[in-house]
């Protein structure tokens, strides 16, 4: 073999290796974002996409045997620029930032401030999930989080994730119990100073006759957020509208006013 031919084969091999490295970078960005979960022995494999939404994509992952469960869900957030919430300020109102440097950076919308806000958005949802799960809310059990994602309980089977309530046809005898369960959760959250703020049949999972409520990044504290009552009324309104398709009629405004009055008077 001539020297020129050998050099050409070496160059082709190097080009192939470089191409494979680039393809690997393209294929595994999600695995890189979940690297800390692999390193901590919590997951062993990312299996498939469960749901791609306006602020995040959820993946079904194979759990490490140490967790004692077969699967977990990894909610990987989109960058702030690519999320669906256009009015973040409505939800951010009343959230406390102790670091004055970070607070100034967020106010000035610098790259540092945007990155801090992105991380705080994730940490806020994890904190909400942890507190509400401990309080007995019907939500996925949170496991841990990093700066890009939250690891939590998986609902459904690996190839059949629990569908959103929006896509389920309830039996007549299921409608009221499910409505009551959701209202109980809204009241429980309010007892713990939380309003979901974006509740709808799209972020309520249905599995084996039970509901599991998800997506709390935008949840607000009604003690410090001036928009809390309107958000609460909207949450209740969407659920009342949903059950009305089954003929169950409820006065959303009356329910919202009653709960808010009880909350304001410490009677929940």
TrEMBL record:
Keywords: ATP-binding, Kinase, Magnesium, Metal-binding, Nucleotide-binding, Serine/threonine-protein kinase, Transferase. It comes from the Bacteria. InterPro entries: Kinase-like_dom_sf, Prot_kinase_dom, RIO-type_Ser/Thr_kinase, RIO_dom, RIO_kinase. One of its GO terms (molecular function) is metal ion binding. Its EC number is 2.7.11.1. Residues 44-268 form the Protein kinase domain. Pfam families: RIO1. It catalyses: L-threonyl-[protein] + ATP = O-phospho-L-threonyl-[protein] + ADP + H(+); L-seryl-[protein] + ATP = O-phospho-L-seryl-[protein] + ADP + H(+). It is an enzyme of class 2 (transferase). Belongs to the protein kinase superfamily. RIO-type Ser/Thr kinase family. This is non-specific serine/threonine protein kinase.
